[in-house]
Amino acid sequence: MQLIAWPMDLIQALVDAGYRVVRFDNRDIGLSQHFDGAGVPNILWAGLKARLGLAVRSVYSLTDMAKDAIGVLDALNITKAHIVGVSMGGMIAQRVALAAPQRCLSLTSIMSTSGARGLPEAKPHVVRALISRPTSMDPQDIGDFYVKLIRVIGSPGFPVPEVEVRARSAIAFKRSYHPQGVLRQMMAIMADTRRANELKNVTVPTLVVHGTEDVLVPLACGHDTAKRISASKFVPIEGMGHDLPPGVVKRLLVSLIPHFKAASRSRVGLP
Question: Which of 53, 84, 97, 267 gives the lowest tally of CB atoms within 10 Å of its CB?
Fold first, then answer.
């Protein structure tokens, strides 16, 4: 997803609470550098290899993407920050906490996973919905695609009106549409096989948030992430799937802002 996928009600609430919010496009998506010269990976073959425990090679790693995030902090002269990531972004955020704990005031991993083998996986129809593509580049077909995708992976307890899904997809398509980058990012996820065993080394205050109705990254994946990080708190959200509709944002903020405040106090030794 592009940086504009972050809900504005979430961003505004954090700004109102006194925080400076930095969003950016990960590599190979949005307006950041694309890696089309690396070609289009065979994601189905890679997925089979991953399930068999065979090595998956990617043109870049989640560690590389974590270094990108740290580079953004460097460019903005930000010494420390609360690191928040959603889905793949949660995995990258975990990698940031492992690579540069001194730069992290806290870690928040939302609808993400440790990547451990044996965790429940998305059902085949969910994977097909994720890796399929619109029938054409016509705006109507683009909108149809995203409506179908949200019907599969979205939050059943917090349904989003179809007109809003279409409006957001139109804005995202106009800004950038780069499905090849999504496939290469998925390869980086499958290639990151050691993160689960490394999470015991995360020392920063951590919040793990997960939806009880997430069919793309099942709830057990969030439980496992929290279990592996000793300084973590796990917060399930009933009715939440794999998106951030307004109702989910409200419930997320109930935990997120106190998490930031508590982490900041602990950094300076306050009770």
Answer: 53
